[in-house]
């Protein structure tokens, strides 16, 4: 047996991390345009507007806005069946609350989609990937405000109508569940001293869930053939030991990770999630009309990012903590770490696929997976055998999940298929791509593209539909 013939192989990008041209052709500021550079040892900071003397790597990205034609040609050369990318909301509605869209922004994405169609590459479009308009934060308080549901629905209707001939796969919000531990990324939340952060997070999360449900309804109305997915940040949390306390702790963390994603898939809040709010002493305003909207806006598929697994257990002194992709857990002695401390667990991808499919019983889609590393360009060549090994091991486990475990999997998109700015650290040197971009953390360089060794390996993998694994 082998993978389905229509399996969607491809790569993934986010507008704020790759496009650059942050103030070009009518684009408004997004929340990532005021997010400074960081590194392994220092966190990125949110500034009050764009300040002189600060470094904002998202302002240049990898120049995809001006280089998209060459980039798509490279994707076509690799044989991509799909490309996951996002629309920068602030390119379409610079402030987010306008009635009329920015035609230059619409024209840009239409050109991208036309070129993808020419090469028979299916776009998988994320509507909000950590790049909401900054004006919605400063003027309305971000997703605290129910008015944003209407603004987002209007944005969705505009782009879904305009791009109906080109796009049939949509994702509403990227890693929505990250709002619980990194609230600025998915929701642009900055807290006042007088606020209860948890109450703000979960009320904002409720409004985003309603906006997601509205997007699903709009998509199905505009084109009944449209398929709309949620997107979860997830990797299995293992118990540190078989001690029942450790097992319970790991299962509780897994359930907490997916509490909001459950709503997108099932169309209602679980009793567990509502009890969680009660135990936290917070009151989330959920009307009867809201419940109807959530039920009518269930997603068609569940996409997710997978980079690492974690270990959980009851607290014991002296244990090492590891972090990665905004999450943390205990160190797993059976795994190796990458340069940024993320633990590499290919079997964990198979376990995660089984866990999610058994939980939801709807098609899954791996839309982020990859290895960040400090690649070295020598004589126009990058030997990234470590990345090939990473992909090979993960894709072997993915195949087992599909062929042996009967998981319904739509496709796989390698994250950052062309080097881009890291969301977590704001670095360019933390490279994920199959294509090297000659640019440093400060936007210096030719921005010329070079095929890495992994480029050719992935090309063969797609050509053989994974039979080379």
From TrEMBL:
EC assignment: the record states 3.2.1.86
Give the superkingdom in one word. Answer: Bacteria
Q: Which Pfam families match?
A: Glyco_hydro_1
Catalytic site residues?
368
Which residues does UniProt assign to the signal peptide? none
EC class, as a word, reads hydrolase
Sorted keywords for this record are: Glycosidase, Hydrolase
Gene Ontology molecular-function annotations: 6-phospho-beta-glucosidase activity
Q: Which InterPro entries match?
A: GH (IPR017853), GH_1_N_CS (IPR033132), Glyco_hydro_1 (IPR001360), Glyco_hydro_1_AS (IPR018120)
Family (UniProt): Belongs to the glycosyl hydrolase 1 family.
Question: What's the protein called, per UniProt?
Answer: 6-phospho-beta-glucosidase
């Amino acid at each position: 047996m082998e993978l389905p013939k229509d399996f969607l192989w491809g790569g993934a990008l986010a507008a704020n991390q790759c496009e650059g041209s942050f103030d070009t052709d009518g684009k408004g500021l997004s929340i990532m345009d005021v997010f400074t550079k960081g590194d392994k040892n220092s966190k990125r900071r949110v500034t009050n507007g764009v300040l002189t003397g600060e470094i904002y790597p998202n302002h240049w990205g990898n120049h995809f806005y001006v280089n998209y034609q060459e980039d798509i040609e490279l994707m076509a050369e690799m044989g991509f069946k799909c490309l996951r990318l996002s629309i920068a909301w602030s390119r379409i509605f610079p402030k987010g609350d306008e009635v009329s869209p920015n035609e230059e922004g619409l024209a840009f994405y239409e050109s991208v989609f036309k070129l993808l169609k020419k090469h028979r590459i299916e776009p998988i479009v994320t509507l909000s990937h950590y790049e909401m308009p900054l004006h919605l934060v400063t003027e309305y308080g971000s997703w605290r405000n129910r008015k944003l549901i209407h603004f987002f629905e209007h944005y969705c209707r505009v782009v879904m109508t305009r791009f109906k001939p080109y796009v049939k796969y949509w994702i509403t919000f990227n890693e929505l569940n990250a709002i619980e531990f990194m609230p600025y990324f998915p929701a642009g939340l900055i807290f006042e001293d007088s606020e209860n952060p948890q109450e703000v997070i979960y009320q904002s999360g409720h409004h985003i869930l309603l906006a997601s449900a509205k997007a699903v309804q709009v998509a199905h109305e505009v084109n009944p053939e449209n398929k709309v997915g949620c997107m979860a940040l997830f990797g299995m949390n293992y118990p540190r030991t078989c001690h029942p306390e450790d097992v319970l702790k790991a299962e509780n963390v897994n359930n907490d990770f997916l509490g909001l994603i459950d709503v997108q898939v099932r169309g209602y809040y679980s009793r567990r999630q509502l009890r969680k709010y009660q135990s936290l002493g917070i009151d989330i305003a959920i009307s009867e009309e809201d419940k109807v909207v959530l039920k009518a806006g269930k997603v068609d598929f569940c996409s997710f990012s997978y980079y690492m697994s974690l270990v959980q257990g009851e607290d014991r002194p002296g244990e090492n903590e590891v972090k990665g992709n905004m999450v943390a857990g205990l160190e797993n002695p059976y795994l190796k770490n990458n340069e940024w401390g993320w633990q590499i667990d290919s079997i964990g991808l198979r376990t995660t696929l089984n866990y999610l499919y058994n939980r939801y019983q709807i098609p899954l889609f791996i839309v982020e997976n990859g290895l960040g590393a400090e690649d070295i360009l020598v004589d126009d060549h990058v030997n990234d055998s470590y990345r090939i090994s990473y992909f090979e091991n993960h894709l072997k486990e993915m195949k087992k999940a599909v062929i042996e475990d009967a998981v319904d999997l739509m496709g796989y998109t390698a994250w950052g298929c062309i080097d881009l700015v890291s969301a977590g650290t704001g670095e360019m040197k933390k490279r994920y791509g199959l294509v090297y971009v000659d640019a440093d953390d400060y936007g210096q360089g030719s921005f010329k593209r070079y095929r890495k060794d992994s480029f050719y390996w992935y090309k063969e993998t797609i050509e053989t539909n994974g039979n080379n694994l």
